[in-house]
Design goal:
membrane, transmembrane, DedA family protein, DedA_domain, 78% helix
Amino acid sequence: MNADTLVTLIGQYGYAALFFCLWLGIIGMPIPDEAVVMAGGFAASLGLLHPVTAFCITYLGVISGLSIGYGLGRIMGPPMLNKLKKKKNIDKYLSKSYGLVQRYGSYSLCISYALPIVRHLVPYLVGIGRMPFIRYAFFSYTIGFIWTLAFFIIGRLFGKYIDKIGMIVHNYGLLALGVLLAGIVLLWVAIRMRSKPAS
């Protein structure tokens, strides 16, 4: 689904489209989360949605979708893995997810946000591993807020390029996230320097 279709969908169904596109991502809806979040920011910049409300709904869509994965992993346990393994081309992503959880523990939730598909699998795995919900929420919701804010702002500022940005992030994961965060910091510094009065 391309950015124009997402923005049209958001224009027709408003906040519900934002929430459900993200929420349904956990069950494999083939829409990159980054594109949906950026489309929400772009729709807000076009005046289709109120920016603060759009951001809050987007954030709730992100964290609720991933929390469903955590809950399913926790309730269903290891049999959930058998269901996941039946999905096409999932083995390499499961291997990456296992590796992250084994190597970084709770911090794997933070790292996984930079890796498409893996971000949906890690909550299942930490749920299966019986991570306490408070710990899961602390890590996942905190980085989820930062991740959602970053892509929402990118959508507001560079909405016409959502498809290209989404493809770069999908293909280059962590590297793209690092460049993205560095760009946001540089933009923030430039804005701050411009707003300072000359002495």
